[in-house]
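Help! Submission page says 'invalid entity' but I think these are all valid:
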Amino acid sequence: RPSPRCIVAMARTQSYWASVEAEIEAYLKKSIPIRSPETVFEPMHHLTFAAPRTTAAALCVAACELVGGGRDQAMAAAAAIHLMHAAAYTHEHLPLTDRPRPRPGIQHKYDPNIELLTGDGIIPFGLELLARSMDPARTKPDKILRVIVEITRATGSQGMVDGQYQELGLDQLGSEYDIIEYVCRKKEGELHACGAACGAILGGGAEEEIETLRRFGLHAGMVQGIQGKKKAGLMEEKIEKLKELAHKELKSLKGKKTELISSLIEPSVAAVQIS
Amino acid sequence: RPSPRCIVAMARTQSYWASVEAEIEAYLKKSIPIRSPETVFEPMHHLTFAAPRTTAAALCVAACELVGGGRDQAMAAAAAIHLMHAAAYTHEHLPLTDRPRPRPGIQHKYDPNIELLTGDGIIPFGLELLARSMDPARTKPDKILRVIVEITRATGSQGMVDGQYQELGLDQLGSEYDIIEYVCRKKEGELHACGAACGAILGGGAEEEIETLRRFGLHAGMVQGIQGKKKAGLMEEKIEKLKELAHKELKSLKGKKTELISSLIEPSVAAVQIS
């Protein structure tokens, strides 16, 4: 049973992540009004919010605040990360004629054609949002370009798409556990690494802080990914090792209040994320 | 029978467009090496070049040169435009379970899953290429961000994706000719408008030149689009009207050598593009 002091700390971190998630959602709702042509924008709105949240977007905001930036400086990048994730989620659930294994049945509100095209619209929209967010008074355009490169890489052929290939069994890597680890690295790991790095870049972090937070994000994201798999119970050792690596990175960030951000890898917080 | 002088002019414009196309292709080949993981990059390379060329990419380079810019300044944007078009082409030909009309049979070298994921990788890659092309000595980062906004809009939900919706009959607009016109405006028209505007932005054109070239691109692209449809023969009047509008825009560009760029809407050049 946790101590009262511990419960207070848990409540504080939970309310922190909840407030970040709520702000990202509000930003996205404002950015995707249901406008004409409604046949296009209504599914875009729906599928953006139908996808499960990824903590990579919230981590982007938290990393920005950790290095001393303002929450609003990271909001467009966090929204873009969620949108790229939502597009990938939508396309992962498309009924194609050659899906090697059936996906867990999700409710399809739209026909496959609409889901395909909506995903194709969400990807450029996320990057448009980011490119438009330039405010020379606060964030220099070259920083935004750097963040665009980060996000396109993490979500493209070298990142998330590579993970999706492996997940579909389109390539043979090794044992079942090797594949799970590789997929979680490419999908959740690199997306969280990207989120943390983007937040640190936008918040004005030093290069060393950016790289430390990137490594923290990679480990924390892999923990999230593996914990979401059926075989997670058999990979406890791996999960503990990754948590240790993640904590080690945060410890190297001298003089920073890392308590909130470290809560991302604690089960109590993970439970809140999932619920 | 064309006069000898006319034949010389035609040969000159043909060799101009051919050299632009060849440079874009060389740039793309260099940008997409077949590297590890090959299961991801080999299909990306193949599907990038399997898509038919769009003159929107070449128009981007031509518009840049017309306003006084160097060819290399427009190359990344032209490549990005081709990549977005190639991704759309790949996804348009995916065998989904609810395609309302069969697509003309194209050779599928890969399974649908790979084609879906490759398209999903090509979209961010095109924008990554553009974001990485920043060279502060020649092109300011805010110009690149502006071009990213142009390309994401033209190829996203308000642009190409909207055209694909209409083309699939997912929405009812009006008569068959109204639909053809709308689809050609959204797909070929706005992509060419975007190409011309991006080239003019990157080449350092004045705002007025950018908007004139954008309108020229819209009309020229619609001509290309309609000419590619089966019903083109019944839409001659519309085509002539669009050509007239396109020529009118170029005439307003005082003191510019518009001969090469105007050849984009002449049948002799169109034939070269197709062959």
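Support: the input was valid. A stray whitespace character was the problem, and the output above is from the cleaned input. Chain B touches chain A through 58 residues (CB under 8 Å).
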